Amino acid sequence: MELISQVLALESTSQVFGKEPIVPFVILLVVILVVPILFERLQLPGLVGLLVSGVVLGPYGWNLLHTESAFRTLLSDIGLVYLMFVAGLEIDIEQFRRTKNQSLGFGSLSFLVPLLVGTLVGRFFDFDWNSSILIGSLFASHTLLAYPILSRLGVVNNEAITVTIGATIFTDIAALLVLAICVAMKAGPFSFGRLMTLVTLLALYSIVVLVGFDWAGKQFFRRSGDEEGNQFLFVLLSVFLATVGAQLIGVEKIVGAFLAGLAVNETVGEGPVKEKVVFVGSVLFIPIFFVNLGLLINVPAFLQSIETLQFTFFIIIGLVASKFIAAFLAKLVYRYNWQETLTMWSLSVPQVGATLGATIMGYRAGLLDSRILTSVIVLMLITSTLGPFITSRVAAGLTNSGIKDQQSVNPAYQKQEENDSSYTIVVPVHNPQTQQYLIEMAALLARESHGRIIPLAIATAFAHMDAPQLDASVQRSHRLLAKATALSKVLGVEAQPLLRIDDAFAQGISRASREQKASLIIMGWGKRTGFKARLFGNVIDNVLWASHCPVAVTRLVESPKKFQRILVPLENLMTPSLQPVKFAQILADANQAQVTILNVCERRTSSSKIAWRRSQLSLLISRLALQNPPEIQIIAHENTAQAILQAARLYDLVVLPFIRNRTVPGGLAISDVTTQLAKQLTCSIVMLGEPQRTQDVVVQTEVTSSTTAAMSEGIV
């Protein structure tokens, strides 16, 4: 009522907003919901939209949001901490270990050369030594924005790319340590003793966080079992404890957040807890940070200052040139070819996570002024666009140097299948309307593989086993199982119905499948989506994370017995991706159908590279020893999703692998092709998710949370 009375009294908008903090928060929510969508439809990054919104709504625009708001500053600080934590969480430590010598070598070059160039640029514009060194450290780090492009091209196991990914851990840590020392030196006169004290405290603090938090995290996760809520809270507590600890020793909080990300990296792994942590930050806190960052940008002053424009030009040229020099030196030392060298250079150019965090901290400490802040934001926008663009052009056609390690993946699957006495397919039944097609598909696969079907019904447990709700659920489950058993008998396949009472659907499915030594789980999905499903995960999402065997998630628009043409798009040439090929071929043999393998390459790909891709696909498929080898089709197209959609019009079924987005710091990840296809394909779809154990091998097959977020909250 107070707000309405203020408006009716014709108080100015700024006065109303100043007295009612909820109104600016509502504006922020509208901005982070609407603006990124609009900018992405204009083929622009959502990040740009958030920054532009901050400029327009800030004190140098419409003045609807004020920089002195304590509530928004708190949310923005949490967003900054989250940004740095995710940067540490997303670093692939396993990649670093495999090529630690080369990664340290290239990381040192990629840190020292830009540090030197940036320091010289700062001195050229009359900044003192402390500020100049900090400017140099801003050049040193890099963000792997182009990783989704490399994953789509299937070249992430090329040694040069693996080395660049591993070098990220060195450059980011070194840049943040320089920031910590520069900010600490700002607080008082420089002395060697003070510097050594700070370095000693930093070293001890880093050991406590990296070793202590890692040990505590593994102990807590082991004892907490499947309690994802408690695990989620533990991760959040670790982040903010590390930031408080950093401030206690006089170090910027983003250093603690980054180290916390590294500390819990292996503990969290690629599980659902990580997805929830990243989701919360990318949906709310990190976008608010970028909007708040836009409030600090004074565009008129930036455009009117010749010196600021000159400084921006020099730091852009200095960064791009210094990263190229570092990549060229790595070429000379490690004998990479030019294509690998240019790819390393383009990967190390984008500046987002650590660079933005260090800039904000330097600005708040008084080491950097508003001109540098605006210039670094311009640098971020240009490099985050330029780097992925160059990567998409130069990385096409690279070969995986880890090919001999890949060859050992499929034999492991084949050996497992040979050792199984029976090929067992578990079919969770819940929705009578979709149950028939699921059983039919399972029957085709089981008959061809001489296996069996286990229709599985889950009755949700209650505190008392005599609860009326449990009785009703058990009776319903019995009816579903009876129908599934009768249908299996008609199809001529052995069925062993199983009723399980469990606390939750997902855990019940995963545990029963493990107990029955299932070879495959076949599930369906609906069309409902929601915030709850994304935040807390749905049944399918949780089964995919926990399952010990492949999971086929289906959307069947007709009987599987009618499938005559099956399409299997492969986004890359990594061996584990051939599991969908094996699945499709078994189904095709049951129906005397034809399987087509489709690979989409860049439109500019030469005929010789297309021939190379065809030969690689033929070589990989030949290892499956299929009686009826599939047809191979390669299309040159600028849009992978559109090429697959056009080809899929002639097919009855499309079999897709789950591919996880590699979330970039900031949560503004590029949508993966599988997600787009799941939304637009009109024919039947099977999405095949691999068990988590494949992450232990060189080639990782990952499950996309963004895809499973598009599925229903329950089994259908």
Task: Describe the model.
By secondary structure, this protein is α/β, with parallel strands linked by helices. Helix content is 63%, strand content 8%. A 10-stranded mixed sheet has the order 3-2-1-4-5-10-9-6-7-8, sandwiched between helices. Strand 6, helix 28 and strand 7 form a beta-alpha-beta unit. Helix 7 packs antiparallel against helix 17. The chain is globular, with a radius of gyration of 27 Å. The relative contact order is 0.10.
Distance between the termini: 46 Å
* Major β-sheet profile: 10 strands, mixed
Number of beta-strand segments: 10
Would you tell me the structural class of the helices and strands? Answer: alpha/beta
Tell me the helix content.
55-70%
Radius of gyration over all CA atoms, rounded: 27 Å
Total helices: the number is 32
Tell me briefly what this model is.
Belongs to the monovalent cation:proton antiporter 2 (CPA2) transporter (TC 2.A.37) family. This protein has 32 helices and ten strands.
Characteristic key phrases:
single chain, 716 residues, alpha/beta, 10-stranded mixed beta sheet, 10 strands, 63% helix, disordered N terminus, antiport, Cation/H_exchanger_TM, transmembrane helix, Na+/solute_symporter_sf
